[in-house]
Amino acid sequence: MTARSAARRHRDEVGEVLAVHADRPGPFVVVGVVAVWLLFSGLTLLNPAESPVLMLAPTAVFAVLCALVLVYISGERLIVCERGLVLGSFAPGLRPSVIRYEQIVPGSLVPVTGARRYAAETGTGGYPQSTVRRSAWTRQGVHFVGPSPKEARRHRALLAPLQDPPPRSIDGRWVWFAGTGATPPAQVTALIARAAGAAGAVELARATAAAPERALTGRPADASAHLPGLR
């Protein structure tokens, strides 16, 4: 199932899909995974088994494992819909979060570049978080303050709550971040502003349309200026 078709499950809540942005790993990551497969496959050939089947079996297993790794690390999406956002991993067995525009704090949604410095600037340490959808290869994205991760889930989760961070906004809400892949974040926020305005979230639409792009520096002192609402 594609991310677009999976997002249509929430059509009654957030409307039709307007755009899908994939935050996939770059070629260096893919080459690295392939190199690991070649390395382990080569090690198995140093001590070949008696039969060709037993000799090739480990290579096939490593290929499947590496393919699964690529599938899961390539599953991040930010989907802009008519009345809200669907974001998170669409890899098999995982469910995204759903956030309506009225749940986003007006003035907090901004386009961000320099996302590789996000952990240093926010002091989050780079640990996986359910509300910060950022990987090592994420270069740009959108930041906003919104609902708790529990409110944004549309399913019962057993392990996902372990990655839920505490509220980090100045008003006790949750800070969110989602990568936009190759699409300039200002282009994404412009679309969100138009969709929010059409959906009746006028204050959010106006503030988002006027929000300039923020380039992260990695300095904690700049965090509150670059990421509105962060305490």
From TrEMBL:
The chain crosses the membrane at residues 28-47, 53-73. The keyword Transmembrane helix applies. This is PH domain-containing protein. The keyword Membrane applies. Keywords: Membrane, Transmembrane, Transmembrane helix.
